[in-house]
């Protein structure tokens, strides 16, 4: 019992600097933001009322949810395919998959966003090539719209979806798959009716983590959306830094944090934190 | 549920399997009869599980051919063979109910809903899982999971049922119960059963024939009493149970069997000294040996001194040493053991001529 207690004490001491940092750098300032949302410009619930009635705010929220939903579906599906290769492929396939998963982590989000601009813009690589081979006559609108935002965000988020999926696939008992085949099930059928359902917790975990990340995206939508596909984080930025509307910006922040908090609570009901790394 | 005629007859010819430089299975030729209960017995790494996986189609042999009812199935993928399989640890589908697990092989065979319902219902009844239909595997006990695995493997009436150490996770009492149940299922279905185990008593209790493996080789196949009483070699003799081995000299054929000298005393055996001449090993199971004050003339016997005893309840296990130092163990009634120990000196160990068999001197 004493050893257990002192272990807990030790763990608490080791975590203390991080907790202190989080409180000072996030929790305390955030309380200030909460206070603004109720006090600026005048005390009361005015900003929350505005939030419910302001068409611009609502359209941004709806766009954010829509983009996050599309990004989640596309990222998880793509990550699932990569993870299957990474976990169950031949050694050579695994190496390639691992490379594809890890390399994006070494390149900053800003660099990647501009990389996509270079690829997708009207005079970017893709449009230039497609025009050169005569496939199209006018450049396609691939960027400075929702499509560009979704492409950039999906690219950024796929690796984050890989880890919960890999964890679920690794813990799967191979004999269950053999059993399915031994009972007469084709490879396709075994994949869809045994493999996929058995990795359900990984799919839920991956979807929630991608969705939560998507809600707070700032740099990617700002660059690839070109001001035309504003998402919630960018809206907050605009309210605080480019207009004197701090109260509304704060109220949007509070709503976003509460929503993300609720999703995180849901996430940890399905996935242990260890599976996300 | 099934006509015995549907049970498969399997023929393995010259099957071999190498994993890199490791020889897992070597030149195995074996016929498995229609509706028989064959046990593959051996220590871990002996090749028995590899052979089962080859039968199932999960492992491709490097040499040899495999026939089922005369059809070459060597290159046929697992899902196109008609084998049911019960895995070590059961390998149930954790996300499916008991009912859905058992229905799975019928669903992939595109049976009609009514047919599936009827057969799954019958199977659930047969293995005693009524009332558990909607439960998930995680909500069942080990024995119940085992029954689901058996039901799932039998419901599509496979020609052969393959079982990979199915009872290794069960405690002793439950294991006995499941063994009896499996024997009953074998009789009721008439299907060919191929069962892998490393437990010799399980093998002897269940099978119509036992195939003993070691180091990737099939050493002997036969009915349980045949392999137990007349093993071909030392490994089989020792693996199937306790065995006493006495050095024998001057072995030669005689009327009705063979004779030899055991510590300067003539002994006779019913078995023929065909392959063994001169020096050999005389092997006798402990339960066939008894203790007496004096061996009568013409009776097989050897003098020994009791050194140690272990009380087993129904009997006493007695360790003895012969004059020339051979160690012998016998299981005798308690009072005889007490008498042998109290005398502190020499007793006679005797055995019937038909219970001793010859093994080559040294080696396997």
Notes on the protein architecture:
Chain A: The chain crosses the membrane at residues 65-87, 99-119, 147-166, 203-226, 246-268. The complex is a heterodimer of chains A (277) and B (364). By secondary structure, chain A is mainly α. Chain A has 13 helices and no strands. The longest helix of chain A has 38 residues, at 2-39. The two termini of chain A are 31 Å apart. In chain A, 32% of the residues are buried. With 364 residues, chain B is α+β, with helices and mostly antiparallel strands. Chain B contains 9 helices and 20 strands. In chain B, the strands form 4 sheets. In chain B, strands 6-7-8-3-9-10 form a 6-stranded mixed sheet, with helices on both faces. In chain B, strands 13-12-11-14-20 form a 5-stranded antiparallel sheet, with no helix packed on it. Chain B is elongated, with a radius of gyration of 25 Å. Classes of the chains: A mainly alpha (277), B alpha+beta (364). The interface between A and B is medium-sized, with 19 and 27 residues.
Q: Which architecture of chain A does the CATH hierarchy give at level 2?
A: Orthogonal Bundle
Distance between the termini of chain B: 45 Å
Biggest β-sheet description of chain A: none
Name of the CATH class of the largest domain in chain B: Alpha Beta
CATH superfamily of the largest domain in chain B: P-loop containing nucleotide triphosphate hydrolases
Rg of chain A, rounded, reads 23 Å
Q: What is the number of beta strands of chain A?
A: 0
Largest interface: A-B, 19 and 27 residues
User: Cα distance, first to last residue of chain A?
Assistant: 31 Å
Extract low-pLDDT stretches of chain B.
1-5
In the CATH classification, which architecture of the largest domain in chain B applies?
Answer: 3-Layer(aba) Sandwich
Domain ABC transmembrane type-1 (chain A): 61-267
Transmembrane segments (chain A): 65-87, 99-119, 147-166, 203-226, 246-268
Main location (chain A): membrane
Membrane topology (chain A): Multi-pass membrane protein
């Amino acid at each position: 019992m004493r050893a257990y207690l002192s272990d807990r004490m030790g763990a608490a001491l080791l975590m203390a600097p991080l907790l202190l940092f989080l409180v000072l750098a996030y929790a305390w300032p955030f309380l200030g933001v909460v206070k603004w949302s109720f006090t600026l410009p005048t005390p009361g619930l005015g900003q929350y009322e505005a939030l419910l009635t302001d068409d611009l705010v609502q359209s941004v929220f709806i766009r954010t949810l829509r983009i996050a939903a599309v990004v989640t579906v596309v990222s998880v599906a793509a990550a699932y395919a990569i993870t299957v290769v990474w976990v169950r492929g031949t050694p050579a396939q695994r190496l390639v998959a691992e490379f594809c998963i890890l390399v994006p982590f070494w390149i900053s989000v800003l660099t990647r966003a501009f990389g996509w601009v270079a690829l997708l813009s009207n005079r970017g690589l893709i449009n230039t090539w497609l025009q050169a081979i005569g496939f199209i006559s006018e450049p396609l609108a691939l960027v400075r719209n929702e499509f560009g935002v979704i492409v950039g965000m999906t690219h950024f988020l796929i690796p984050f979806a890989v880890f919960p999926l890999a964890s679920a696939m690794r813990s799967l008992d191979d004999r269950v798959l053999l059993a399915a085949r031994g009972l007469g099930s084709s490879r396709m059928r075994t994949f869809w009716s045994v493999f996929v359902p058995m990795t359900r917790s990984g799919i839920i975990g991956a979807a929630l983590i991608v969705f939560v990340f998507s809600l707070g995206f700032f740099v990617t939508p700002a660059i690839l959306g070109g001001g035309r596909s504003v998402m919630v984080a960018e809206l907050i930025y605009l309210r605080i830094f480019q207009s004197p509307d701090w109260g509304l910006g704060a109220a949007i922040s509070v709503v976003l944090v509460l929503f993300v908090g609720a999703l995180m609570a849901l996430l940890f009901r399905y996935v242990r934190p260890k599976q996300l790394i | 549920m099934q006509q015995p005629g549907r049970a498969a007859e399997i023929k393995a010819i010259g099957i071999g399997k190498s994993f890199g430089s490791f020889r897992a299975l070597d030149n195995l030729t074996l016929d498995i009869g229609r509706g028989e209960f064959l046990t593959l017995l051996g220590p871990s790494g002996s090749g028995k599980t590899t052979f089962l996986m080859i039968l199932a189609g999960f492992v491709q042999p490097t040499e040899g051919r495999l026939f089922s009812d005369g059809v070459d199935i060597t290159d046929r993928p697992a899902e196109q063979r008609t084998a049911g399989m019960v895995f070590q640890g059961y390998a149930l589908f954790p996300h499916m109910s008991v009912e859905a697990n058992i229905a799975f092989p019928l669903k992939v065979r595109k049976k009609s809903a009514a047919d599936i319902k009827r057969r799954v219902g019958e199977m659930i009844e047969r293995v005693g899982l009524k009332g558990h239909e909607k439960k998930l595997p995680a909500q069942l006990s080990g024995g119940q999971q085992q029954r689901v695995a058996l039901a799932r493997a039998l419901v599509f009436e496979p020609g052969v049922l393959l079982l990979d150490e199915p009872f290794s996770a069960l405690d002793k009492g439950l294991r006995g119960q499941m063994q009896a149940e499996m024997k009953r299922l074998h009789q009721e279905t008439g299907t060919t059963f191929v069962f892998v185990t490393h437990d010799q008593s399980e093998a002897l209790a269940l099978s119509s024939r036992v195939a003993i493996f070691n180091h990737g080789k099939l050493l002997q196949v036969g009915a349980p009493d045949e392999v137990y009483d007349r093993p071909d070699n030392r490994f089989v003799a020792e693996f199937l149970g306790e065995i006493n081995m006495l050095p024998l000299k001057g072995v030669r054929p005689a009327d009705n069997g063979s004779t030899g000298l055991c510590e300067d005393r003539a002994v006779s055996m019913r078995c023929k000294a065909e392959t063994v001449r001169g020096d050999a090993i005389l092997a006798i199971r402990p339960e066939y040996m008894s203790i007496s004050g004096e061996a009568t003339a013409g009776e097989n016997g050897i003098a020994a001194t009791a050194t140690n005893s272990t009380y087993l309840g129904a009997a006493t296990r007695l360790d003895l040493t012969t004059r020339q130092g051979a160690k012998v163990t016998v299981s005798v009634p308690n009072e005889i053991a007490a008498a042998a120990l109290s005398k502190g000196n020499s007793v006679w160990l005797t055995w019937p001529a038909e219970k001793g068999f010859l093994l080559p001197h040294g080696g396997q």
